[in-house]
Each structure stands twice: as C-alpha cells, then as structure tokens.
Amino acid sequence: MEGKFRWKRMLFYSFFIGFIIFFINVKIGFAATFRDVPDSHPSALEINFLVETGIIKGYPDQTFKPSNNVTNSQVALMIARSLKLDLNNRPNPGFKDLSKVDADTYKAIVAVVDEGIFPKGENFRPGEPITRGEMAQVLVNAFHLKGSSKQQFKDVPKNSKYYQAINTLAANNITTGYEDGTFKPNQPLTRAHFSTFLSRVLEPDFIPVSSGYGYNKDYQYIYELYEDYTSRDYFTYLSSDTSGDWWFVSDENNQGIKYVNHVDQKGFTFKGYLENGEVVTDFYIPYPVKLGASWSYAYKNGFRPVTYIVTSMTERMTTPAGTFSSLMEIVSSDGFQYYYSKEYGHICTKDLKTNSIVYQLIQLKKR
C-alpha cells in the first residue's frame, strides 16, 4: 500500500502549501492530471489517485474522457493493474472477438478471465460498455468482497442476475445508489464513475460517510489543552431538545459555557453560547465527507471564513483516553490539524506551525 501513503502525503502537502497562500485567494487544489478533468470535477481526486498508483493512463492527447462509457477491455486493464496480475502463460479463453485488440489488452483480458473475474463465453465484447450491474459483479469477483446489506434498490429485485453482487457493494459502502432509491444496473458505466467505485475498493478513504463525528452523550469527555500552561476541559451532557444535545463545557473550577451538538442530514455543528446568547465558537462538518472534501465556514458575520479539507479518513491515534481507529483527519487554513472519530467526535488537535499537540482527549468516562 505504498501508493496509498504517497497519495495522502501529496494531498496533505498540496493543501499545506495552499493554506499558506490562502489569504491571497489562490485556489486550493491539484493541477489537473488530464485536460478534461479539472480540479472541480467530482471524481478528480479518485482519477488522480488511480493515475498516481499507475492504474489509469488516459489517452495519448492527455484526456481522460470522464463522461465516456468505460468498456469491458478498459475495465480488464484497470483490474489487472490494480491486482498486479501476472499476465504471462495464461490459457486462451477462446473468445472470437479479440483479434483487433492490442497485445497488452489481450493479455489483461486473458488474465482476468483466467482468474474468474470476468465470465468465459463465446465473445468478450471488448469495445462495448460495461453496465453498472456487470461492474458490481467484476468488483466482487476481483477483490473477493463479502457481506450483505439490508439496503434494497427499487430496480434490483432479488431474482436479478446481479442482485447479490450489488448488495455486497452496498454492504461494503462502495455504493449507495441514486437518490431515488435505484441502482440502474443496466445503465452503461462512465469512466469517471468506474474510477470512483474502484478507488473506494482500493482506498477506504474515498468511501463517503454520511453520519457521525459528533459527541456521544453516553460519555463524559475530559480534554487537556496545552498552551503556556496545561489546563483541562470537562464535557458533560445535560439534556436534549429540538436544537440538539446540550453540553456543559467547564474547567477545573466548574466554570464554563453551554454547547449544543446538532446533527441532521446536512452534517453536524458544535456551537458554544454565552449566557446572553452570543455565539463564541462554532465548528461544522458537512455530510457526506470523504478524502478531499473541503468546505469554508465562519461562525460569525464579518469573520474571515476558515477553509477545511479532509486529508484522510482512516487514521489511527493513541491518546491517554485510548487508541482510536478510522479517524477523519482535517487540515484547516489557519494552521491546525483535527482528528475526529465517527463514534466519539473530537479526539485531538495539532498545531501545524509547531508540529505539536495542543488539545487532546485524555479520558472517556461512561455516564
């Protein structure tokens, strides 16, 4: 997984340089790898990831053609590269329609068929688009995915040829389908969408998360703040109402303010109020979040927004409160790095200017 870590470093340093010059309105992002995949493209990060790991090569004219349908032969090539398959000495699968494919493509097709990733038959249809249902079966076969989901797609009945494969993709959070509750199994798959699916299989950071990262009201939280001296914050759950979960955040002398942790379909906010109702702090994470997601947020009118970018979704960290896995790592344009747990919320903050921990969870006490 060396490519994985190179990719994370590349993303982080790209942003680190970006926030140094953020205040002169330079756009944060990568230089486009392909002429037709700008930084703003919804699959740009996934496509660039596959380029960096050597899985995608694009076309000779430096285009990727993201909206074009991906063909069976292109999928065979990308799967063979992803799995680093040995392409030599594979048996002839007996297809009648491979006479016009180039030597590298032929070897990749032969290898993926020999591995049982694609089915045998009379024709391979190398230049024809692969459908979303066929893609699901290929990914399940190639990466030996397991699991079942309670999610049901309206257009994928249980007697569908690809029902189990699609259900397995859903169980692994590789797909959530369309907003109307369909999967469209017979629809041809675009090159951009295939890149998104494949990236999610290879790198869990790309799997979008649509819930969590708020504070768990079943626990009291104790944090240490490291400034000129060390102090502690105690997060104690009070009650819940239509605004969200109310917490009292106090110091060692039991002096503090109330915060509300609000979660809805758009994301979560953690907002602190003085007794007069004035907002003194406000943190926001929008859903869904995944590697590369970014947003800007200002907690008061007239304040300069801070820009945040997700640089990892699978970090692991140990604090005095324990070891936490699958953490979301966020870098902000004002020079901080945050770590959030899907189950427990904020775990740690680092100051990137000093490369030191300035705030961390030291104890979780069950209520």
From TrEMBL:
Record flagged with keyword Transmembrane helix: yes
Regions crossing the membrane: 12-34
InterPro entries: Cell_Envelope_Struct_Comp, SLH_dom
Pfam families: SLH (PF00395)
Domain SLH: 30-93, 95-148, 149-212
Entry keyword set: Membrane, Transmembrane, Transmembrane helix
Kinase recorded as keyword: no
Annotated protein name in UniProt: S-layer homology domain-containing protein
